User: Fold these one by one.
Assistant:
Number 1:
Amino acid sequence: MKLFSGSSNRPLAEKIAIELKTKVSPSEIFVFPDGERRIQIQDTVVDEDVVIIQPTTPPAEIHYFELFFLADAAKRSGAKSVTAVVPYLGYQRQDHVFRDGEAVSLEVIVNTMQSVSIDKVISFDLHTIKIPEVFSIPMLHLSALPLFAREIQKQGWGGLDTVLVSPDMGGIRRIKIISEMLKDMPYVTIEKNRDLATGHVEMEEIRGEITHRVVIVDDMISSGGTIVKAAQALRAKGAKEVYVFVTHPVFSSDAPKILQDSAVDKVYVTDSVFVPKERQFPKLRILSLAPVIAGALG
Ligand code: R5P
């Protein structure tokens, strides 16, 4: 197996390589003055299973193109197979037509993956369980929930004073799964309303009883609006400790600042998305997906 990394999350690729007792193979991603990329893999891959680590985080277009070029380079150089490890799958929220006239952007991306001979995709905590259906190539849908459940147990949170929270109705399946992992820890759901035109979120109703400690579980933080509003609403209902477990720290614009200034005590995320030092904040805790990914590849 030969492991390559695009530019979006080299530290994760290095950690996966350590887990697999191998090295990240060299490649060059040259950026021309106009922003175009020229990719060259610099290792022999003839008859090898090639793995490319590249979460397609913002700027998703650039990271997708790097992935496509790396896959193309590997196949042209004789690779037997190409597996794309895309822990965070960009454009996943555009998996169907929400309003007349919209594109199904994710389907365009999957078609392109297929056209550059990517054989398999591995991703984590997709926004809906229907997303793998958009894929015409094998897709392994993994989850950070077992990692989160272990951390919650390690912290000793449970009993009558802790409740899990899904900050929107779309997360019910996710919250039921982690509740089962935690010996049927009780959960509540929040009805969230998002204005599709502005992206603005409002928490409409909390369904269930709030206890001393609440543990919000979600798939991603982008603007931070969902978590900040959910934490406010939960505190208003009497929660005294608010913890957050989210797989993908996309952290667009000023999300780190609004999370640090929010009613949340700690925000646990994974390294599916690289968060540079200057975007990290005191309430942030990062858990690594590398052992899980290595296990799936090994
Ligand atoms: C939405 O349905 C997702 O599960 C997340 O709650 C959402 O994408 C988070 O986005 P933001 O941080 O911008 O509110």
Number 2:
Amino acid sequence: MPAALTRAVSPAIGCGELTHLSRVEIDYARACAQHAAYERALADLGCEIVGLPAEPDLPDSVFVEDVALVLDDIAVILRPGAASRQAETPSVAKVLADYRELALIGAPGTLDGGDILRAGTSVYVGCSERSNHIGIGQLASVLVPFGLRVIPVSVSGCLHLKSAVARVSPDTLLLNRQWVDPAQFRGMRVLDVDPGEPHAANALLLGETVIYPASHPRTRERLDTRGIAVQTVDVSELEKAEGAVTCCSIIFETAVRAR
Ligand code: CIR
């Protein structure tokens, strides 16, 4: 059974990091309701929710994706590129230690989970403002023994690689080519976001269904046309904090236990 590690929205979410967005007020109660509906969508698709309590002093801590990468063989505790987010890792590491052996990205390496996109044995990692070459090199060393190949990818104009591209089927990427060059992903089919919806690439593939933000209806139509099953969630308050659907969970198989 898959698990989804999530963390409740911090009451300080309005003070989080912003890189490409201007600050607008976030309705905390609405953000919590949207997060709860997101968790329900994960549960409806078969995930056991492993929920962490809110962290009042860590504004961005709902975006758990950025602090760990969990694979069948190992969990890698990342080192977020924003200093304000580095204290998010210990509580996530403590939970994941029940399920996997842990590896760590160490200083001066930085790596945000939002920059990591797995497709089979390829692990694409965005060279972004948050993830540096040292962190990417450390990840490559950790993953080689498990038969996984890290492929650094150029990305610009957005926060993370997965702001620009995400998987919507085993071999299809939803992608904004203004921010990432599709030629970097060999052997994958590409579905372009609607040009009027630049933030529409972030999608969470769970089994054969894509959890997808309600804010990108024209791109959603493109998914429908391709025959991709979509479960829409409203994450408008979390989008004001520069988050979307991949960043609010870490999905992993629980059947694989630490050896
Ligand atoms: C940040 O800038 O770190 C947060 N405000 C948003 C992080 C979103 N993370 C993600 O999409 N993986």
Number 3:
Amino acid sequence: MLAVLIALITTAFLSLMPNVELKALGVTAIISFASAFILIYISLQFLIFREINNIYKNIDRIKKNSFKVPVKLKRSANPLRRVNEDILAYADKKQREIEELKELEIFRREFIADVSHELKTPLFAAQGFVLTLLDGAMDDEAVRYKFLRKAAKSLDGLNILVQDLLTLSQIESGHISMKKETFDIRAVTEEVFDQLEENAFEKEIELSIEPTEYEPVFVKGDAMRIAQVMTNLIGNAVKYSPESSVINVKFLIKQDMIQTTVVDNGTGIPPEHIKRIFERFYRVDKSRSKKQGGTGLGLAIVKHIIEKHGSEILVKSKVGSGTSFKFLLPKG
Ligand code: ADP
């Protein structure tokens, strides 16, 4: 229609000229119609149809989930090309969100399976002992105490596991924030040593602090949570060290920070496991950890607490030589 209009206007103008032949008018009408038609068709094809086709192609790729957005989108002057780029960028963003949600869903499912499994073990053990007692073992005094003690131990384990799970979920959900109080981390460490003295004594493990002369080491942080970090780290060192070994806690001033290191000369952690020990329920030697009463959550809690203090927990280990965990806190 546009081409017809252009041809009509051109011919009308030409007819205004004096002495113009009808034949010439006809030829002008045909030529102007044809050239206008070709020009309009080509520009539409290049400017609009091609871009719309691209948009459809991209929508198709999005549907098939096989699209790839150029690393750096150049903002084109062509509005249709911009629409195309925006569709791709939006689809890419949504695709990433979907992938994140899928990962979270897998993580959630695995976590629920792990928690159920971990809860089941001590619960079934305690149930077994109680049922055996009810089935008649209660009449034998020696067996009665032994089984009751075992049931109580399993329930203690269950209690520790539930406490650890609660701590972890509280920290992760962000319900608790870390206090910023000044406290003596050396005094906290000595309290932890007192709590673990019995376990260390049984294995003739020596607990020591460096520097040896008593001088308070003031840091800024949440004293209660850092006490938990120290309990988990020193507790692990005791658990995974052989008899007659030494566990050393070192404090070092690093500019305006205090570096705390817990060093043991225990079993060590094989390099392929190092990356994963901070994951929940990850254990290098499952049966050994369980035998020692480990929940598999200790280091996950440590990592969360230290990260909530804006710091990082670092580990170095060599199989057969020992392990060291260190973290920095601001000087108090
Ligand atoms: P657990 O309750 O099993 O000790 P953790 O989260 O505290 O769980 O530790 C995860 C795993 O890391 C442990 O099962 C153990 O295999 C390994 N681990 C942690 N600390 C040490 C250490 N000091 N020496 C050797 N292995 C360790």
